[in-house]
Write a structure and sequence with these properties.
By secondary structure, the chain is an alpha/beta fold. Helix content is 41%, strand content 20%. Strand 10 and strand 11 form a beta hairpin.
Length: 297
Amino acid sequence: MTVVRKPASDRSQELEREAGIGLRHPHVAELIDRPPPGLAWVEVHTENYMVEGGPRLRQLELIRERYALSFHGVGLSLGSGEPPDPAHLARIRRLADRFAPALLSEHISWSIESGHYLNDLFPIPYTEEALSVVARNVAIAQDALGRPLMVENPSSYLRFVDSTMPECEFVAEIARRAGCGILLDVNNIHVSAHNHRFEVADYLETIPAAAIGEFHLAGHASCEIEGNPMLIDDHASRVDEPVWRLFDATLARYGKRPTLIEWDNGVPPLEVLLDERAKAQRRLVRAAGEDTRADAA
């Protein structure tokens, strides 16, 4: 197991009662000029800021003056057979050293083949071999970054015939072997449970609470493929009611964590995002109050 070197100040604990939003280009100027009351943090896609300078980094500097930051990567390809690209890791490290994000995360997927970056996050089989590869890659990444990394549970639409374990066990075992954290995407659990007909209670029962550092919430779409109803994690709408109910159950089981509203496609006006954030914030406040009463008892 790798030894994770934590930052001197773990700012993520300061955000555990806070809901944030993803930073999207249409909202950047407004968030800089008119910071909404109560918004403590925003998430950015790490690869969008891997530049040497210019207006994009200047905007991020101004954002950092107003909000805590979360870096959410899409390019490490932790599920690839080859170790993470050292040059890519070095770019993330330089950016993280400069901006000191409170949270740092990546996906359990692969997106690189023979040095070519593919514009998607592809699934992996849940086997012992894949588990060893992903845990190794996560450990390499954490050592190179000098920071704890969270890995996000995927949304899935197919299952590999070679898989030998359920997804929840796979994710939990990565955290154990690599000494990393888990970004628990509640919408992804709902989507995958619907598509593959597994019980969300079993999923929550398996994921270790101590490893969870953040929650994600998002919207999804419904479709039909060859007569089978499917849910697609498209991040293009408000959080659906069943996902809110699952979030309530997640908070009841694990307690509060920093919680993000993701909205990547068909980005709405900022007030819509903030309204979704307010719904999550009310639930976090309620969970915090229940934690306090439990401690007093």
